[in-house]
Amino acid sequence: MRATFMYGAGDVRVEDAPDPVLRQPTDAIVRVVRSCVCGSDLHPYHSMPASEQGTPMGHEFLGVVEELGSEVTGLKRGDLVVSPFAYSDNTCAFCREGLHTSCRNGGFWGAPEVGGAQAEAIRVPQASGTLVELPGVEEDSALLPSLLTLADVYGTGYHAAKQARVNARTTVTVIGDGAVGLLAVLSAKQLGAERIVLMGRHQDRTDLGREFGATDVVAERGKEGIEKVRELTGGEGTHAVLEAVGHMSAYEMAVGVVRPGGVISRVGVPQYEEAPVGFGSLFGPNITLTGGPAPVRAYIDELLPAVLDGTVDPGKVFDLTIDLEQTPEGYRAMDRREALKTLIRF
Predict the structure, then answer these.
(1) Across 227-345, where does the E strand assignment appear?
(2) Are 2-152+295-345 and 154-291 equal in CATH topology?
(3) Closest CA to 181 of 314, 287, 48
(4) CB 177 within 8 Å of CB 198
(5) Mean pLDDT, rounded, for 72-76
(6) Where are the domains of the chain?
(7) CB of 149 closer than 8 Å to CB of 315
(8) Which of 72, 80, 174, 190 has its CA 20 to 30 A from that of 289?
(9) Percent of the chain residues topping a pLDDT of 90
């Protein structure tokens, strides 16, 4: 089969790779129908040390079940399925608490023994707990882009809003106009927020953010951006701040715009090890810091119906569609901000 590997910063290649095979009775083999490039893939694209052995890439996919291990239940060959960006058994104590990314028997795509989803096929460990069937959906359905967002970016944006306890009485700031930030806007709107400030400076993206529910857009960054949000909120800041970038500058803006007693919910993968949490930043004004890798498996069943009936269209975050062999260009386009999010079709 053909699969995508990263050999170092900026070095993405599509190469021949062995076809995946069942290794455990809980495995499934899935033929990939749609995959994509994630904003988080750009972190290693910028910084991965050069290596002679490539790292399998991709952690979001829709596909068709081709083979099933003897202990897999609830699935059959031919099922069209969506997979979260982390596999899990969906039965351990952490999964039952909605923390599938901490599953005792789980893990993440991209390890050499598992493979990546920017490939023609993939082995899925813990298939019964990981894969979610998409009943009645055809392989060429116009819903596929929106369904693919359930693998990561929609569930991650929703996780940010849920962890921040967003509701009808909550004012919200979303930091970042990437796919996760835009879908955090959509999620905050779904949870009832009436005032949503989107901090982003790319108009094509912030226009989509307005379509998803943003009431205000702040293009300024740093101190200027903080002052603008404070101005919009009567000097108070917002109850919830959804940080979808992962850089220290974004965290500092979050601290600057959160209201006393509010919540900062981080879902951008942190590219730093230390952050202010002391008296002057979080402790004194009673700020809650939350977030983390989204257990999107916990949200798929909740979010799926509105995608299927067209109530929401999170797939609008995909603005570039390519074939698998063009995946390196998909990375380049996102890195140059020529594309918001790249869809890979097979």
Answers:
(1) 238-243, 258-266, 288-291, 320-323, 342-345
(2) no
(3) 314
(4) yes
(5) 98
(6) 2-152+295-345, 154-291
(7) yes
(8) 190
(9) 96
Burial of 113 (0-12, 13-18, 19+ CB in 10 A): exposed
**Structural contact between residues 199 and 173, judged by C-beta atoms closer than 8 angstroms:** yes
Q: Which residues contact 302 (CB under 8 A, 6 or more apart)?
A: none
| CATH number of 154-291, picked from 3.40.50.970, 3.40.640.10, 3.40.50.720, 3.10.105.10 | 3.40.50.720
> What is d(CA 344, CA 116) in angstroms, rounded to the nearest whole number?
13
What the block records as the tokens of 249 is 């500058």
Helix or strand (DSSP H, E) at 304 = helix 297-308
- For residues 274 and 140, what is the distance between their CA atoms, to the nearest angstrom? 45
Task: Look at the block and give the residue holding tokens 């230390």.
Answer: 274
Under 8 Å between Cβ of 32 and 119: yes
- Round to whole Å and give the CA distance between 251 and 287: 13
Give the class (CATH, top level) of 2-152+295-345: alpha beta
Which tokens in the block code for residue 106?
């789980």
Question: At residue 112, does pLDDT exceed 90?
Answer: no
Dihedral sign from CA coordinates of 114, 115, 119, 120: negative
How does pLDDT run across 240-285, given as a tens digit for each residue?
Answer: 999 999 999 999 999 999 999 999 999 999 999 888 999 989 999 9
249 HSE (CA, 13 A, CB side): 8
The span from the CA of 188 to the CA of 80, in Å, is 29
DSSP track, 137-191 = --TT-TTHHHHHGGGTHHHHHHHHHHHTT--TT-EEEEE--SHHHHHHHHHHHHT
Sheet with 11-16, strands from edge to edge, namely 11-16, 2-8, 55-56
